[in-house]
Design brief:
OB fold (Dihydrolipoamide Acetyltransferase, E2P); translation elongation factor activity; single chain; Transl_elong_KOW-like; 0% helix; 16 strands; SH3 type barrels; 6-stranded antiparallel β-sheet
């Protein structure tokens, strides 16, 4: 347990039985009454922002979170099996922790997972991933206006928009945060 005055931005707390990350800490000293903290927390599971008013000596629980690199092995229903790179221990985590970036994961890729009390609470895919195009429509002659895009399917079955010069068999770089084409990889 720690005092409210020891909370820093980025800490992960157990607040009202839920895990939250601290996004803002404001100290207020009104002319009348005691000083207090106005804190903003983001709920890790729901993403909802919660504001709290804490007395300076109020007790809060700062959680010990371990963040490591893991290797993504394979998908198993609604879960993904990952492996610790040092101990080779395997365990499964909910696919939903990755959000929309989960569709771009390839077997053998390194991912970052945060664990608190043996429970995975956050997961992050790499910001960029290289994928091979398995199917794309052929470019139509005359359709060369600037910024022309066509649909293409990647090796893991994701359909994205790519420039018309991209062909089947090309490797491309995709931003996993937005799902957009970045560049062709040589």
């Amino acid at each position: 347990m720690a005092k409210a005055s020891e909370i820093k931005v980025g800490n992960i707390l157990r607040f009202n039985g839920e895990l939250v990350t601290v996004i803002e800490v404001l100290h207020r000293t009104p002319g009348k009454g005691g000083a207090f903290y106005l804190d903003k927390f983001r709920n890790i599971k729901t993403g909802r922002i919660v504001e709290a008013r804490l007395a300076t000596d109020e007790q809060v629980e700062i959680c010990r979170v371990e963040t490591n690199d893991y290797q993504y092995l394979y998908e198993e229903g609604d879960h993904l099996v990952i492996m610790n790179n040092e101990t080779y221990d395997q365990f499964s985590i909910p696919k939903s922790l990755f959000g929309p970036a989960a569709r771009f994961l390839k077997e053998g890729m390194n991912v970052i997972v945060s664990i608190e009390s043996e429970e995975p609470i956050m997961a992050q895919a790499p910001n960029f991933v290289e994928l091979e195009i398995t199917y794309s429509e052929p470019a139509v002659k005359g359709d060369t206006s600037s910024g022309a895009l066509k649909a293409a399917t990647t090796e893991n079955g994701v359909e994205i928009k790519v420039p018309i010069f991209i062909n089947q068999g090309d490797k491309i770089k995709v931003d996993t945060r937005t799902g957009e084409y970045v560049e062709r990889v040589k």
